[in-house]
Amino acid sequence: MAGDQSAGLGSAGSTDGHLAPLIAPLWSAAVAAARDETAEAVAIERHTLISAEADALDTAAQATAGAEAAEAQITSLAAESERLRTELAATLERAQAAEAAAIAARESAAAEITTERDRARTAEQARAAAEAIATTLREVVDTLHGRSRDDRDTD
């Protein structure tokens, strides 16, 4: 390419022909410098892209590890939640059974209290009847003793 340019410069004129040997090396140096700059820019861009890719891969690896840890924690929490649900259900069943037993005990105690009240009322009525009978018998005995005394006194 530099050779083409120098040939083109040489054909432009006789004055230019004298400059061609001076311009050709400068032109070649400029093209080489541009090529070097382009290569350096490409190398810098490539290095930047490789660095960005490595950073992205590191970030993705960290995110994957974080997601796996979160999944493990979710699994653990789900198992704990299920254990607590089972324990709560068992506790609820025990509480309901205890409540049913307490209701049955209350009903049984109420029935016993009613029975005992009825027995006490019956006993009180029997006592009152016995007192009435005793009073009546005393009166009868007293009456009989009084007549027999009267009968003895008249004799």
- Estimate what percentage of residues fall within beta strands: under 5%
Major sheet characteristics: none
Quick check: average pLDDT?
88
Cα separation of the termini: 184 Å
Structural class by sheet pairing and helices: mainly alpha
Low-confidence stretches: 1-13
The residue fraction in helices comes out at over 70%
Shape assignment: rod-shaped
Give me the Rg, rounded.
Answer: 62 Å
Q: How many strand elements?
A: 0
Question: How many individual helices?
Answer: 2
Question: How many structural units, i.e. domains?
Answer: 1
The sequence of SSEs as H and E is: HH
Quick take:
This protein has 155 residues and is mostly helical.
Can you walk through the features of this model?
Helix 1 runs antiparallel to helix 2. The protein has one domain. 0% of the residues are buried. The longest helix is centred in the middle third of the chain and has 141 residues. By secondary structure, the protein is an all-alpha fold. The radius of gyration is 62 Å and the shape is rod-shaped. It contains 2 helices and no strands.
What's the SSE blueprint?
Elements: H1 2-12, H2 14-154
Name some characteristics of this structure.
mainly alpha, 2 helices
